[in-house]
Write a structure and sequence with these properties.
The protein contains three helices and no strands. It is mainly α. It has three domains: about 55 residues, no CATH class; about 55 residues; about 45 residues. The radius of gyration is 35 Å and the shape is elongated. The N and C termini lie far apart (about 80 Å). InterPro entries: APQ12.
Length: about 150
């Protein structure tokens, strides 16, 4: 409880210290309130009377308010997730660049280029082998459909 009292006293001291600087702003707000009050109050009174006459409008208003709050929370969650995804992506790309620079530094540019070409050729061989295999499966299915009198796409 002492901590809360200390914070309240510090906030009050800050408020009193800033009072000469906030006085023009507070006077402007009070003047705007005094000038806008005759125009706004009749509108607010009619809204209050209509809300009292039909409580269904209040229920719909509360439902809309809850939906807006839920959308704000979901937007906050989306922004937090996107921040973490961007951070993870940046760390991945940076780590990949560090690994490439370290490999080139350790093995030299010629040896690194030779290794990259060898890995690329092995990868293309695997890809072509799998491509031919799945193309064979597709051709077998086309042959079976044509023998059964089915449609060939």
């Amino acid at each position: 409880m002492d901590i809360a009292q200390d914070y309240v006293l510090k906030a009050y001291a800050i408020y009193n210290g800033c009072e000469p600087y906030t006085r023009p702003f507070r006077s402007l707000l009070s003047e705007l309130q005094a000038r806008a009050s005759p125009f706004v109050m009749p509108f607010l009174n009619t809204v209050a009377v209509k809300a009292q006459d039909s409580p269904g409008i209040v229920s719909v208003g509360i439902l809309v308010l809850f939906i807006l709050i839920a959308l704000q929370v979901l937007n906050l969650v989306r922004r937090i997730m996107m921040w973490w995804i961007r951070l993870l992506w940046w760390m991945t790309v940076s780590g990949l660049c560090v690994v490439v620079v370290a490999a080139v530094w350790q093995r030299g540019p010629e040896r690194t280029l030779e290794d990259a070409i060898a890995w690329g050729s092995q990868l293309s061989e695997v890809w072509w082998r799998e491509y031919r295999r799945w193309e064979g499966y597709q051709n077998q299915q086309k042959g079976q459909y044509s023998k059964q009198g089915g449609y060939v796409y």
